[in-house]
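Inputs:
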Amino acid sequence: MSDALTTFLEATVRTATPLALAALGETISERAGVINVGLEGVIIAGCFGAVVGARSGSVTAGLLAGIAAGVLAALVFALFVVWLRTDQIITGTALTLGALGLTGTLYRAVFGTTGAALSIPTMRPVAIPVLSHIPVMGPALFRQPAVTYLLYGAILAVWWFLYRTHAGLAVRAVGEHPEAAEAAGIRPARVQAGAVLAAGALGGMAGASLVLAQVGTFAEGMSAGRGFIAIAIVALGRWRPVGVALAALLFGAATALQYLFQSTGSQLPYQLFLALPYALTLVVLAAGTARVRAPAALGRRDLGTT
Amino acid sequence: MRAPAPTRRPALTGPIAITLLLALGILALLAAVLAASGFDVGASLSALVRGAAGSSYAIFSATLVRATPLILTGLAVALAFQGGILNIGAEGQLLAGAAVAAGVVLAWGASLGASALVLALVAAAAAGAAWAAIPAWLKRRFGVLEVISTIMMNFVALYGVGYLVRGPLQEPTRIYPQSSSIPAATHLPMLVPGTRLHLGFAIAVAAALLAWHVVRNTSAGFRLRVVGANPSAAASAGQVDVAAVSLRAFLLSGALAGLAGGIEVAGVTYALYENISPGYGYTAIAVALLAGLHPGLVLVSGVFLGALEAGAASMQREAGVPLVLVSVVEAMIILAIVGARAVLARRAQRTVEAGA
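Outputs:
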């Protein structure tokens, strides 16, 4: 049983990693007042970038290419939402639609129409000496692919950035009260553009981690709603980096339940488990976020003059 | 003091000329994407045109058949957006309608015949409304963003149908992930003999014309527009029950999408499949925005995007262009429209500021 539990916890952290990365990025963006529903598109762009990059034979190249693709997708979003001030939700929906289509098209154009599984190098779990030998939690937290350790670093970095730097203060100010921020000499549009691009980098990394540390190949639409789940995670984590990371774990656990039940030979229909994270999102949004206050200027289009 | 910006909406919605201009622009964009992806642009585009409008078969059995669910789901999205509800869940609502319609005709089609068909379509609309009721309730009771909740409901519906066609509704041999075929008496009659164009197209057109009339000429339609344009003003100055109006818009939107699902089962597929919809509910957003949320223009944009999808299917068959390319074009349509609208709004504001 403890073996099954260890496997379950390991799978929880592994499947939570892309969700947490994407949600951390979205946290920065939403704290600056921009909700990017196109996060799903950013992630699939990251997936595709990672496959292209990893074809060179290097996992690192895959990761970097995934990040670059995520930033590129976020740049399109920033151009429309920050510069033209289009509706964030509709623009994000279009970004998702376009990125899903474009990656599917390019994948077939570049790698052939068969869509056969590509062989690319993947990230193997790296056990951290001593820590990975802690009973039960040790392997779950410290016998993971490198990208999970990058996530740990990103949680700290985003926390430090938001609460301990001037730039982070500017981000929070713009998300709460852009006029006041502007009066204090901050340029809201610049701050928002920066936040959206940073979120793009983390979203691209999320896609790369999905490809390099979980699936090992590209499939059309493989992001499978993770971007939307990540947005729910941000609300559940109350727009705070550590809370967001913990919320991501909950969703990782919901996904990992499939593996647990498969291994116990359960007779329940597997679609039930596939649907679980999505249903959980609904329940959690209702129960966990009812009395939580979002950044005051989230989704606003009329921002200052710069 | 800076004069407040005028509240008039930029007039992108009205003229059909602009829509046609957009259509030409979209074809140019499509050609660019094809060239960038390394496909033979000429061969691909000619396959597109032939597949969409090259023959009476292409028009009646491909384009208009595909336009039917797009008009209904496009209407669903347009009415919801007009009421300020960002329903991205037409896909799930369509699936709910398809599943319930299939269930009804498989259970009672043999005994009730054509009346089971009517019952199934009503049940499909009810199922779509019920599927929309969950995010509507979550929004009203807990303030949950409907964008997220409706998308989650799409995934739940997709896996729900996946379960049904491998479980309770699976065909008797239990080999294929699909339901049995529905009895012939419950098929929707054909509109044009010798083609695949079924009565559902007429239902979709009637729904669009009815919605046009309601939005334009009735007080309910006026309240819908007011709530969508400015909910707080609607509540304070107009004495409108904003929550009730948006709830009704949400449910009606779900019902239209659910009806689209029922019509697909009774008019096109004659059985429930897991992938019964190639993303009609998402394309619907492009349909609605291309029409400027105008119910009458949804007919035009629905047929246009139906033609695009029919043409894309033929591009895939004849030129090997992946079908998903269509969603790139749809995304570009949406971005072009919201972008153009933002630019026009900014220009209008500048003019006002300069004159003040």
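Remarks. Confidence is low (pLDDT under 50) at residues 1-14 of chain B. Chain B is about 75% helix and 0% strand.
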